Amino acid sequence: MKHLLPILFLAAVPLLAEPVTVKESVILKAGRAAISVKAGTVVELVARDGDTVTITYRNVTGKIPAGKLAAADAAADAPKAEGKKPDGDKTARPPQTTYGKAVQKAKDSAAAHDKNQVRPTDEILKEKE
Question: Is the dihedral of CA 15, 84, 22, 60 positive or negative?
Answer without folding.
Answer: positive
